[in-house]
Amino acid sequence: xxxxxxxxxxxxxxxxxxxxxxxxxxxxxxxxxxxxxxxxxxxxxxxxxxxxxxxxxxxxxxxxxxxxxxxxxxxxxxxxxxxxxxxxxxxxxxxxxxxxxxxxxxxxxxxxxxxxxxxxxxxxxxxxxxxxxxxxxxxxxxxxxxxxxxxxxxxxxxxxxxxxxxxxxxxxxxxxxxxxxxxxxxxxxxxxxxxxxxxxxxxxxxxxxxxxxxxxxxxxxxxxxxxxxxxxxxxxxxxxxxxxxxxxxxxxxxxxxxxxxxxxxxxxxxxxxxxxxxxxxxxxxx
Length: 286
Fold this sequence. Notes:
By secondary structure, the protein is α+β, with helices and mostly antiparallel strands. The protein has helices spanning 72-83, 100-111, 128-139, 156-167, 184-195, 212-223, 240-251, 268-279, and strands at 8-11, 17-19, 31-35, 43-48, 51-56, 60-61, 68-69, 88-89, 96-97, 116-117, 124-125, 144-145, 152-153, 172-173, 180-181, 200-201, 208-209, 228-229, 236-237, 256-257, 264-265. Among the domains are: 8-57, no CATH class; 61-111, Double Stranded RNA Binding Domain (2-Layer Sandwich), CATH 3.30.160.60; 198-252, Double Stranded RNA Binding Domain (2-Layer Sandwich), CATH 3.30.160; 254-286, Double Stranded RNA Binding Domain, CATH 3.30.160. It starts with 7 loop residues before the first strand and ends in a 7-residue tail after the last helix.
């Protein structure tokens, strides 16, 4: 049947619009292929029901996995996934990449360039993908759901990292002490314990921290911000850990038990003082 004039097809190779009037779909055909006129010998029409797509013929075949590509350049990029070749080197830190676009994106880490801006809150990002994930936070939508516990996430990457808490998979290992982590970010934070690096500095007093979260908690001291409120007596605290310790006053919970006697304590500090005073042991490990 002839398709009506004025409608268009999408070209999957060039993303340009192709007039439907130029194409006739074979009757009662769900999926067929037909050659394009001689001016485009490397293209073909592909029909799926009443929809038609202009696709490129894939002449370039991977010698490792038989995957085919329409352009030789795409084949070259793909082959690097098999060979491990990374020809693009960062002159700042020496890191290598398989594609020039990946190197270009990486260089923004050194330059501080953040060309992608959130129109809602004004935050800037160095990758468009990070901006897209960030934008979901404003909508409140969390489309990625853990099938084991039902917890939802705004990004697929966050879901993958979370899933490791169920499987116990920790692929990132500290070369200094052997401790393992489920994501690279936590490993980087941990490495600062060994290196002594404290990149987060308080602008009020100059104190430095190895975690951004610790700096944020510290800033509450200067601004007297106490967001953590006790459900029993309404007392407020600037650290969540302090609230947990205080709550035990109401619940009577004593999770810290002396290994030398049956006495238990609500705070680890109280237990340590007890061990020194009652058992004359300065170090628990001795």
